[in-house]
Design goal:
Layout: E1 37-41, H1 44-54, H2 58-65, E2 70-72, H3 88-94, E3 103-107, H4 113-118, E4 129-132, E5 138-139, E6 145-146, E7 152-161, H5 171-190, E8 200-202, E9 206-209, E10 212-224, E11 227-237, H6 247-257, H7 268-289, H8 295-301, E12 308-313, E13 316-325, E14 331-335, E15 340-345, E16 356-360
Parallel strand pairs: 1-2, 3-4
Antiparallel strand pairs: 1-3, 4-7, 5-6, 7-11, 8-9, 9-10, 10-11, 12-13, 13-14, 14-15, 15-16
């Protein structure tokens, strides 16, 4: 399961380098031979365009330095898969997007989908999605490394966005909302509408079911050529019942509670297609109208309205009540006197709520 989540710098909650990373294969770590990365597309024309972009790009160079390479799958819809657990034809049969996910990379084992896309941004097709069964150098908060369990949906996507810098941080909230929506849709399919599975958001980008964390979102961005180049990553427990719980177990428990037949396993291909189908128009809406139209839905899905938190300041404790989000995407809270504060993570704690600092907000006029 993904262990985190983006840091706060110039733009809230995003790691935002000043320029795109430059590939330097001579300094890439060696992990032994990784499996090839298969390239699929939603149509032969899109596969041809992807081949043109990827064959001589940085992604191929990085993969070859690790003993891997790209393999282009000509029969994009009807062929057998590449041996990975993620079945490309099933994904494309459920995908309804304009660009996002229409080029798909899959691998049975790779270093890190997030790092490989980040290090190859200059030459990637817009909207490319990379799914791996196993990662040996998965990315977590603060540079932490984690090894992914089988059954976890591990995916990264690259997007180019013409959007204001003030609105960009909310993209990670949209990805989290898309996860919630996709899980609800998959639950409705597997349980035939007979029961619901409640998944919630822990700020800024953790996915919870009850007391159990089942996933998380990570975002990185860079600005170049008057556009933001974004790579977001998701780890979601679909079939892996450890280290916490997973969608399959949640669906089984929901069915048993309603005396329903045992549900089929959740399908990561349908989940991802649903997620991307919700996210793409939402990103368009964010660019045009900001996060305000989405904020009520986000707050309905999160865990924190009315939550009391205590901040340690100068040896004393200050009690605050969380009310929502500020215009910059941080936590909005009030003290017992009614004064409003913006709460920021201090960058030192894996649990954001154990490392908050506050900034007083001006009184409403």
């Amino acid at each position: 399961m993904l262990q985190q989540f983006a840091s706060a710098r110039a733009i809230p909650l995003f790691a935002r380098p000043s320029a795109l990373p430059v590939c330097n294969p001579s300094v890439l770590p060696k992990f032994g031979v990784m499996d090839p990365v298969s390239v699929f597309a939603a149509s032969p024309q899109e596969l041809l365009a992807a081949r043109h972009a990827l064959e001589t790009g940085a992604l191929r160079t990085n993969l070859q330095s690790q003993g891997s390479d790209l393999e282009f799958r000509e029969q994009h819809r009807t062929s057998g898969n590449d041996g990975s657990a993620f079945y490309a034809p099933d994904f494309f049969s459920n995908l309804k997007t304009r660009a996002l996910g229409r080029v798909l990379l899959t691998s049975r084992a790779t270093t890190s989908t997030q790092s490989l896309l980040q290090d190859s941004l200059r030459s990637l097709p817009d909207g490319v999605v990379f799914v791996a069964d196993k990662q040996v150098q998965g990315k977590g908060r603060g540079g932490n490394v984690w090894e992914s369990p089988a059954g976890c949906l591990m995916v990264s996507a690259a997007m180019r966005l013409t959007i204001s810098g003030q609105r960009l941080p909310f993209l990670q909230y949209l990805v989290s909302m898309a996860v919630v929506q996709a899980v609800r849709e998959e639950a409705a399919r597997c349980l035939q509408g007979g029961a619901e599975v409640e998944v919630r958001l822990k700020w800024p980008n953790d996915i919870y079911a009850g007391e159990h964390k089942i996933g998380g979102v990570l975002c990185h961005s860079a600005y170049r050529d008057r556009a933001f180049h974004l790579v977001w990553g998701l780890g979601l427990n679909v079939g892996n019942r450890v280290p916490t719980t997973c969608l399959d177990r949640l669906f089984e428990e929901a069915a048993a509670a309603r005396s329903l037949p045992a549900p089929p396993p959740a399908r990561p291909e349908r989940l991802l297609a649903s997620l991307l189908g919700w996210l793409e128009p939402a990103v368009d809406g964010l660019a045009q109208h900001g996060f305000q139209p989405f904020q009520p839905g986000y707050l309905r899905a999160w865990l924190h309205s009315g939550q009391r938190v205590e901040l340690e300041e100068a040896g004393s404790r200050v009690a605050l009540t969380i009310e929502g989000l500020t215009p910059d995407g941080y936590l909005l809270a009030r003290d017992d006197a009614g004064l409003a504060y913006e709460l920021h993570p201090d960058g030192n704690s894996l649990d954001f709520f154990r490392g908050l600092v506050r900034k007083k907000l001006p009184a409403a006029s």
